[in-house]
Amino acid sequence: MPTIEVQRQLLPILGSPNQGARFFNPELPSSEPFVPGHRTCAGCGPSIQYRMTSKAAGDNTILVGPTGCMYVANSSYLCTPYNVPWAHTQIGSAGSFTAGVAAAYEAMIRKGKWQGKFPNIICEAGDGSASDIGLASISGALYRNHDCLIICYDNEQYANTGIQASSRTPYGGMTTFSPPGPEVPEGKKLFPKDLARMMAAGHPHCYVATASVGYPIDLMNKVRKGLNNKGASYLMVYTPCQKGFVYETPRSIDLGRLVVECGLYPMWEWNPEKRAYDYSFRPQTMRPVSEYLKLQGRFGHLHAEHIAKLQKFANEQWRMMGVELPEALIQAADAKNLVNMSAAAEAETVAQTI
Amino acid sequence: MATAADVKKRMVRINGCVASAQAAKYADVDVIAAYPIRPYTATMMALAQMVANGELDAEYIVADSEHSQLSISHGASSSGARVFTGSSGVGVQFAYELYSPISGSRMPVQMMIADRTLDPPGDFGSEHTDALSTRDMGWLMGWSCDAQEAFDNHLIAYRIGEDPRVLLPQMVCQDGFFVSHITGDVELPDTGQVKEFLPPYKHPYPLDPRHPVSHGPQIMPEQGPPLQLERARAMEESMPVIEQVHEEFAKIFGRKYDAWLEEFMTDDAEVVFFLQGAHAVTARFAIKHMRDRGIKVGMVRLRTIRPYPTERVREALSKFKVVGVIETNMGLGSVSSGGVLYSEVCAALYESDKRPLVMSFMAGMGGEAIVLKEFYWMTEKLMEAQKRGKIEKRTHWVGFEH
Amino acid sequence: MSTKGTQIPEWLKVPFAGITPAPTQEKGQDLFPTGNWRSIRPVYRDKLPPCNNACGTNEKIQGYLDLVKRGKYLDAYALIKEDMPFPSVTGRVCYHPCEQACNRGKYDEAISIRAVERFLGDLGQALAKDVVKPGKPNGKKVAVVGSGPAGHSAAYQLARLGYKVTILEKSPKAGGLNRGGIPDWVLPQDVLDREIERLVELGIEIRTNCEVGKDITWEQLKKDYDACVLAVGLIDPNSVRAEGENKDGVHYGLPFLRDIGMGTSKVKLGARVAVIGGGNTAIDCAREALRQGAVEVTMITVEAHPQEMPASPEDLHDMLEEGVELMHGRAVTAVLGNGRIEALQLHPAKFSGAINASPINVDKEAKPERFAVDNVIIAIGQRASLKWLPDEFKTERGTIKIDRFGRLGDTNFFAAGDVVQLGSGQPLMVVNAVGDGKRVAFNLDKVLRGEKLEPRTIPVDVIFDLNRMNMTYFPHFPRVKQELLPPTSRRKTQQEVIQAYTEEQAVEEASRCFSCGTCNACDNCYLVCPEPCIVRDVRSNGLYKILVDYCKGCRVCIEECPTGCLEGVPELDFETGVVRMDTAFAISPGLHGRQAEELKHLGDRATKNI
After folding, report:
1. Residue from the list B104, B227, B233 with its beta carbon closest to the beta carbon of C3
2. pTM of the predicted protein model
3. Which of A160, B284, C83, C372 has a C-alpha 20 to 30 A away from that of C559?
4. Which of A82, A86, A75, A175 lies closest to A127 in space, CA to CA?
5. pLDDT (tens digit per residue) in C238-262
6. Which of A78, A153, A245 to mutate to test the interface with C (most CBs of C within 10 A)?
7. How far separated are the first and last CA of chain A, in Å rounded?
């Protein structure tokens, strides 16, 4: 049996949309593997991500859809909006089904049973799948370095089953499994897993990055970097969910920016060659967490002490990124300073360009 | 890389695990999903060495759990690769979530199961409950009784499962230790014979960027029943294919197996044992022993339990006066308060004009061999029932009763 | 065999193992035309940017800035030339109402539009042949009286419409206020000459030293031409009505500058010069005085402080940098001296009304000041000289009487420029005159073609509110500054004080333009749609399309449109194409009917099409 060398695709990185003062998106690939006519909610953050990811990946792609909104809402009544091959798999099988597809193609191409360039294999797992039930399978796939890209579209909850808490739900995030009440005023007491860092720290040979729908070109470039990486890659994307977060639907992209600007979702890349984190991403502005929280109904029950805790958490993320904290944000981490409403208003005027 | 090409037929002495590994090698599988659990692990160990030696070109994946093994297999099979995986005992159950999706999506994944008693407690001996607990999930399933049959069953199962008229996953089962770890004489075939018997795997709708399809989208509620109907149809319509394939196998390899049942010394038997798996070997010895002493006893061994050969079982067993079902499995709280085979035998016999008496024996549990004394005891029970004209009770616990 | 004898009805046929063919990229998934979910539809609607709106001649400023961003300088130049004949002039002299209106001014600093226009105008001047061609001759002849900005503009537009145009200019050189009212260190002579050349290239005849009322009469104009545009400007300077104003050494602003511009000046300034007036002409006079040899120049204004002065703040700043002194709150009540000016008598004064065209209240009771000067230049505005005009067409204010279209009664005479804009509330600027001349040219053309003149009725949506755009896409960037000659060296030379942009600077500055309310094909809406249901073949304004069959009305595109071009319109406001939802699964006409059709054919599609 002859052994055939596996040819892989190399996708070009897109230019930045910010050319000096001018905002102008670069030329985007024309292929649209994700077509309209799917039952996701209006303004669905994961849909936005899905569209951008599939556009960045192109036509020689296989998509894997573990159970979640991007399975149930996207595919309904025996149809799907994917113009590339797509398969449903179990919620816990995110990494392993993907590994199976990747292994199959390695073997089939090598053994001459399939001709063509190695397809992009992308798994789109929700955070419930990636952080909880499918954690082991994803870790296995990354450890074994199958040539695939595993994306966690992080809407910080189990959305499809009606909004339940996952291990990615933020502290204070209301869900039907973490409702606020007199016994539990903050609703959710636990801080989330730092899933992306787990993946980077545990599998240093993989390309791992965080991204957000608030920065579309950056997201598409990270998808391409992940696909170009010969081996496993993992991308954690912040994708707001209108139903769970309770905000006005036009703000989906805006929330994606705000969450980064207030430090709750740091944007970084793990470089597998250098074995180091790249923390150089800087958002335009630095904001206190209250500016992000106040736009969402799921945080409406929080008191000053809870907001202060979240600010403290955000401050720790800024420190990790190597950003110097302005005094106002340090003050905002102390609940005493937030109880007085004018002090909160002062904290809000922090917005500064980094 | 040299693979199973250009290898000539030869005799080897190997155990069931290695026989299964050899079968996978001859089938030129593309993806192997491994995860250790006794006693089937030896199959995967053998395959690992074969891949390392260059005898087999396959992606050898050490999965992170049995659930992952089956998911990997599902993904690989969906992409058009021939897949081999396996497990034992609670490992089989750990992967449970995947069995219905794999059979429902018509992916011919093959799973080698070396049976092991389910926890608790930790017992490495063989009971069939592990595989049997998945019997409603839509996989083709059957037991081998020795290493040669194990080797043959793997090839036969690929051929049946991948047939475009069938496209169903298969569990090729063998008793842990009794088959998996006891060596026997196995004839390994010519690769040419395998090529003739087993064509390459080709799924009609794989995950292929050149012909995009979607596997397993959500449905409208009313689309549920027809999909289930089609699954049932697939299972039923596999039956003629199973028979045809066994005939082809006999023609090419020279070993003839009945697709459904092995009937041993049943010609003038009045009482028979009904069982599946390795205990048939000791049963054959015991029956010969008893026949030499003039006892008219025989054995019917069930080779394929899914799809269940209802008519064949009915025809075969109606001839006898008493049927003793040997259960090496647990059906807690079941009809017979014993095992699983009993109810299916009775259901098969229900429409029959001549219904034998049916009783069941919990024997060989926990991986214990059924010894000659116990066969005599069971036969006595059968003959007593025949004389009495009715059974004493539905289930006897062999070794724990007088 | 349980399935023996079973039959699945046609409408419930399901594909093999639930495996379905993929949809195409050409159309969406027909099973879910989700357009009927929305209550608000996004619509592309270009608004009028405030710069276009504020420009006296409504140049398509946003348009040409966008072309410069993309490096298409020639297209940008051609776009300006549609409304403005001499961008290299206005690029130097205009007081840029566009920059005042620029929305970026509310955000960080307004776009330096004038500098970009100058860059493009100079680029256009360097072309061997201009991009503008004369229109197909229509056999009609038009006279344009006056070759200043209004006349130049009217002649230019008329030539493009195919008229045979003759400009009649009283001065020896053409150019009007451009020539005679603006110093060389703002607008060099050769730049203006080149623009006049361009007029000649368009087939326009220019007759200098031809004064209406002297060299040609009203009747002759009526007889020799099919129509006429009177752009005679305001050439008689106003007087301060002070005693002794007729002494030697007293000069008036515009004539002072004009003679220098024409090359016919015989004025020799002494060491100390005063300039009366607070407007732009006064400033130009003060700065010109320095260059003409004056040592000390003082500007004396009635206004109480600089903010009240009508002069452009930049020019005022440059003037002060050059060393001119500024005195406020005084009026000249007498010119003192023996036959020749020796000093001015000043009294405190202020404007009686809110604007500085209102009468001045001089406090005659207060002690007068004596201010010693060698010359005084009085620059407090001009009047029209209309002796040649039939009285029926004169207004009380001393301007020409016109209707709202610039027409004199129902004759074929039209008037444009300062001569009709004085007292109208509009500041007297070159660009306003150009706009006036252009509009009058089009109105004239309509009249000659027998078309009815009608006022504009369509309401215009000018976008001022930054909240209608998305500022997160525009980080703060400072304005690119034009280089200036060092203040101390300026008075020694007639060289241009403000330097031109380089190409890089022009592009950098144009890139700061928000493109207010007007799509500039940034592709952001296309990129962020979740469906996606925004399509375009070409990245160009006007070629983006919303697929209304699928748009769910999430309005992310509207929110993320940086320019505010996209708007949300309530769905029920549309007459056609409204998509309504009857019930969840209605088998009825319309989109749900499409859905029902699709469901019926599910089974066939699956097995056949793969």
Report:
1. B233
2. 0.92
3. A160
4. A175
5. 998 888 888 999 999 999 998 988 8
6. A78
7. 59
